UniProtKB/TrEMBL annotation:
Name by which UniProt lists this protein: Glucose 1-dehydrogenase
Top-level class of the enzyme under EC nomenclature: oxidoreductase
KW Oxidoreductase (keyword) present: yes
Organism, scientific name: Olsenella absiana
InterPro entries membership: NAD(P)-bd_dom_sf, Sc_DH/Rdtase_CS, SDR, SDR_fam
Pfam family, one: adh_short_C2
Family designation: Belongs to the short-chain dehydrogenases/reductases (SDR) family.
EC number: 1.1.1.47
Keywords: Oxidoreductase
Molecular functions per Gene Ontology: glucose 1-dehydrogenase [NAD(P)+] activity
Length: 265
């Protein structure tokens, strides 16, 4: 129970990586608030975890309504007196519109960058004064390997995640004096419902050729990295950008072709 006694907020926490993070933190002993727009779903997820003996509550947060970042934090502080951990999990992209520099419309680019950056900036800005008053805390940003490895598509999403990586380091630098740590976890291709449902078997096979571990990540594996940064085990770790992608992009660019050739020998 490495997070026993801690109070945590996880944004976009009713499914996928966000839900996995909330589950892990709650099972590690934290009181967890599920930031969500769909409160009915958040209440259902909270009830499921509470049946296990966890302590989980829903809290309203709509990324399209900026004032709800502050109201989310204030509601949790009013109930618990503190926030020790903030997991900024929200992220958005429309692959049908977010393509390359030649075809992506400016309004779509700005919308994606704005929402993704605002989700980290506003939530962090709201929670930092409370963490400072309480003697410290941990902010964990869910970024993406797309923020460090350029792709042929999703220019807005990649740009926003690259900015979040840098924002992570800035927060870590500027808030260290208040004993507030800030780190980022960068998932690779992760087997969430949203990802798995949109991948053709052909693309999946092609992509997996370039992952040394040869499989998609699991949401709970991303959550394990988040739990480490959230815990006191990482008390001397801040400003770090942790790639959790099975080694994607690490070896030579022709790794996938070479591995395939080797397998056929």
């Amino acid at each position: 129970m490495s997070l026993n006694g801690k109070v945590a907020i996880v944004t976009a926490a009713t499914r996928g990586i966000g839900l996995a993070c909330a589950q892990r933190l709650a099972r590690d002993g934290a009181t967890v608030y599920l930031g969500a727009r769909n409160m009915e779903r958040a209440e259902a997820r909270a009830a499921e975890l509470n049946e296990e003996g966890c302590t989980v509550h829903p809290v309203y947060n709509d990324a399209s309504k900026r004032e709800t970042y502050e109201s989310m934090v204030e509601e949790v502080v009013a109930a618990e007196g503190r926030v020790d951990v903030l997991v900024n999990n929200f992220g958005t992209s429309n692959p049908q519109k977010d393509k390359d520099i030649k075809t992506t419309e400016y309004d779509e680019f700005i919308r994606t960058v704005d929402m993704n950056l605002a989700s980290v900036f506003l939530a962090s800005q709201a929670v930092i004064p409370h963490m400072a008053t309480a003697g410290g805390g941990s902010i964990v940003n869910i970024s993406s390997v797309g923020g460090i490895r350029p792709d042929i598509s999703q220019i807005a999403y990649g740009t926003s995640k690259a900015a979040i990586n840098y924002l992570t380091k800035l927060i870590a630098t500027q808030c260290a004096r208040d004993n507030i740590r800030c780190n980022a976890v960068l998932p690779g291709m992760t087997a969430t419902e949203a990802v798995s449902g949109n991948l053709s078997p052909e693309f999946r096979e092609f992509f997996l050729k370039h992952i040394p571990i040869k499989r998609m990540g699991k949401p709970e594996e991303i959550a394990a990295a988040v739990a480490y940064f959230a815990s006191d085990d990482a008390a001397y770790t801040t400003g770090q950008i942790m790639d959790v992608s099975g080694g994607f992009g690490m070896p030579t660019p022709i790794f996938g072709d070479m591995a395939e050739m080797d397998a056929k020998r």
